[in-house]
Write a structure and sequence with these properties.
With about 180 residues, this protein is α/β, with parallel strands linked by helices. Helices cover about 15% and strands about 30% of the residues.
């Protein structure tokens, strides 16, 4: 039976996060101004993210201790909320629409490994959250997923399939539970 051989791991064909200087600079600037409990205003955090290549809309709220891997692979539209300790592990593009909510400690993961390969190759996949989507606290969105307009992933769920518009998904793995109805 074959075994995993991490000595031969090579992700260069999948993974190009940009120049080393840019990554190192982001590491320090991001830790000081974004991934911190210091009371830094959201507007300033958005300014920093834009300076590093993120496309950030108006009125975006970024709570304390948010971890963003690479801002140059991030688009966030108007009036979106990013909660405390959210982790956007984006080594490929993550697109977040307007009026979305990423609740506390949720994770958007854009990569996984091929467990069927002895080389354990990286398998990247971008994430798209359309307008009005909500990712509940401590939930995980896996690589390549899409949550359509106003879809919801509930608290503590793990999304391994796409969510259609106005659907509510729950569980591990998450499954459809009902349709979202906005009445007010």
């Amino acid at each position: 039976m074959k075994k995993v051989n991490l000595q031969g791991f090579d992700n260069s064909s999948y993974y190009n996060p940009g120049p080393l200087v840019r990554r190192v600079l982001w590491y320090f600037v991001g830790r000081i101004f974004v991934n911190t409990y210091l009371p830094i205003p959201s507007a300033f955090k958005c300014f920093i993210l834009r300076a590093f290549g993120a496309n950030i809309g108006n009125g975006v709220v970024i709570k304390p201790k948010v971890n963003i891997k690479y801002p140059w692979f991030l688009e966030v539209s108007d009036y979106t909320w990013i909660g405390e300790k959210v982790w956007i592990d984006n080594f490929v593009m993550v697109k977040i629409g307007s009026n979305c909510c990423l609740s506390q400690e949720c994770m958007l993961l854009t990569g996984n490994h091929d467990y069927k390969s002895s080389g354990f190759e990286l398998m990247p996949g971008g994430i798209t959250l359309e307008e009005g989507a909500w990712v509940g606290a401590k939930s995980v969105v896996t690589p390549g997923r899409k949550i359509d307009s106003h879809g919801i992933l509930t608290v503590g769920s793990i999304l391994t399939k796409d969510i259609d518009a106005y659907e509510i998904w729950q569980g591990n793995p998450a499954a459809f539970v009902r349709t979202r109805k906005i009445v007010k």
